[in-house]
Amino acid sequence: MQIYLDTANLDEIREAASWGILSGVTTNPTLIAREKGADFKTTIAEIANLVDGPISAETLSLDADGMIQEGIEYAAWHPNVIIKIPSTLEGLRAVSELARHNIRTNVTLCFNAAQALLAARAGAFIISPFIGRVDDSGVEGMQLIREIVSIYRQDSEISTKVLSASIRHPRHIIDSAIAGADIATCPFNVLKLAMRHPLTDRGIEQFLADWNSRN
Ligand code: E4P
């Protein structure tokens, strides 16, 4: 399973890229707005300079024509830009039309497996089930990943990648990989947490203490 970073913060992207683990980046309007004063196009271009992999940029239109127009514009910014389109009927129209232009899409805000099946049929490159937000609603988010992976695997015509989104903690990363997700997009703090373990710290301390007390 590949790891993407879910942020528009360039410092976080630069640092995570230096760990050698990043295969791509996802952004959304909330994450872009959090970077006060940053221009959308410039931010995406800067991310593309830091990470050599798919960079998701989200459309804001509610109608298919607007999504298609935005998608064509964003895709011209860099060959690695993937167009994020919401899981709606207008979104399906936009996904299939953008696919005809050879523009790759990431169908976002997916909350049930039927949306994922239709998005794949429309030609989505990536489907993004939001597991943390499903958990928040009182339903197990990981079950959604399992259902989508199972449905996609049974259909040899589907090559859409399953991207676990809305990840809240390291256990979500582990369970996404076990469930067969192709990608997990993680907030920076969750990646840092994933590499932290008290027994690792204690082991390092012990090794150093033993080394320093040798005769
Ligand atoms: C994915 O592409 C989204 O940007 C993201 O994972 C949403 O996560 P949230 O539920 O923490 O906002």
Structure description:
The protein has 215 residues and is of the alpha/beta class. The chain has eleven helices and eight strands. It has helices at 10-18, 29-34, 40-50, 64-75, 89-100, 113-122, 131-136, 141-153, 170-179, 188-194, 198-212, and strands at 2-6, 22-26, 55-58, 81-86, 105-110, 126-129, 161-164, 183-186. Helix 1 (10-18) links the parallel strand 1 and strand 2. The longest helix has 15 residues, at 198-212. It is globular, with a radius of gyration of 19 Å. The model has no long low-confidence stretch (mean pLDDT 97). Erythose-4-phosphate is lined by residues 6, 26, 28, 108, 128, 130, 132-133, 165-166, 185. This is Fructose-6-phosphate aldolase. Keywords: Cytoplasm, Schiff base.
Bound molecules: erythose-4-phosphate
Number of separate helices: 11
Largest sheet: 8 strands, parallel, barrel
Strand order of the largest sheet: 1-2-3-4-5-6-7-8
- Count the strands? 8
Fold-level CATH name: TIM Barrel
Give the overall shape: globular
Radius of gyration: 19 Å
Q: Low-confidence stretches at least 5 residues in length (pLDDT < 50)?
A: none
Summarize the amount of helix as a percent range: 40-55%
Q: Give the CATH superfamily.
A: Aldolase class I
Strand content: 15-25%
The domain tally reads 1
CATH architecture: Alpha-Beta Barrel
Q: Look at the structure and give the mean pLDDT.
A: 97
Determine and state the CATH class: Alpha Beta
